Amino acid sequence: MTILDKIIERKKEEIAAAKSGISVNRLKEAEFFGRKTYSLKESVKNKNGIIAEFKRQSPSKGIINNSISPLHVVSAYENFGASGISILTDKDFFGGDLSDILTVRNQINIPILRKDFMVDEYQFYEAKSIGADVVLLIASCLSTSQVQEFTELAHELGLEVLLEIHTEEELKHFHSNIDLVGINNRNLKDFKVDLQHSVQLKNLLPKGVLSVAESGIYNLEDFTYLKEKGFDAFLMGEYFMKNPDPAKAFEEFSIEISQ
Q: Can you give the pTM of this predicted structure?
C-alpha cells in the first residue's frame, strides 16, 4: 500500500465521522457559505503567480514548521504579492485543520485553496462553509467521471477547481470546465521530484490552459526555470515554511523575483 493509498483510506474514515457530526444542511448555514468567492484564475493573471502554502508537515519531510500561526504567515503572503494562498486541511498526514482556513478568512482578501484529498461530495460543501475559494482535485485518486462530477459541484457552489496531474495518462482527467491544471513535480507514490518531467507534461496541455507548477520548487533557480518554460503559477510551501520565519522568507523571495 502506497502512502497515497493510506491517506485516502484514512480520509474516507474522517469523512464518515464528519458526516455523522455535521450535516450538509448545517454546513449551508455556516457564516461563509453564502460569501462571494475570489477567483484564483484572475489573481494568477494579475499578480506574481505564486500560490503560497501554509503547511506544517508532510509524509515525505516530517515536521516542517509547527510553531507559527497561519495568520502571521498568510498575511505576509498577501502583503508581498501572492496570487493565492494554499492551506493544507489534512490532519493526520499534514498536520492541518479546517480551522486554519476559518481563522484567516476574514483577514485576507485573496483566494484560498483548500488543499486536501477530495474524494466525497461532502468535502465540497465543507470547503465552501469554511471560506475556501478553490478546491484541489488529484487525478491519481479520482476517476475521470468523478473529476467531471466534482467540478460541476464545485462550480455550482462558486468554487474554482485546480486539477492536479503527474502522468501523461492523467491528462485524460482534464476537461474544458477545469479552471487550472497543476502539474505535481513530486510523484505522490514515491515522492521523487522531476522538474523536466513536469515541463514535458505542461507542453501537452491544450493552449490557453492556466498551468501551475506544484511542489519541489526548492530555490530561485527552480522557480526561474519553470517560469521560463511557460508555467503561469507556482504552488510553493516548503521553501518558505522550512524557514523559522516563513513570512520573512516570502518577503525576501518576492523581492528577488521582482528584480
A: 0.95
The residue type found at 79 is N
Distance in angstroms (rounded) separating the CA atoms of residues 141 and 159: 20
Can you say whether residue 170 is alpha, beta or left, with left for phi > 0 and alpha for psi between -120 and 50 degrees?
A: alpha
211 SS3 class: strand
Of 88-92, 105-109, 172-176, 217-221, give the lowest mean pLDDT range: 217-221
- Answer for the pair 175, 146: CB distance below 8 angstroms, yes or no: no
pLDDT digit string (tens) for 155-189? Answer: 999 999 999 999 999 999 999 999 999 999 877 66
Q: How far is Cα 223 from Cα 135, in angstroms, rounded to an integer?
A: 23
DSSP assignment of 125-158, as one string? HHHHHTT-SEEEEEGGGS-HHHHHHHHHHHHHTT
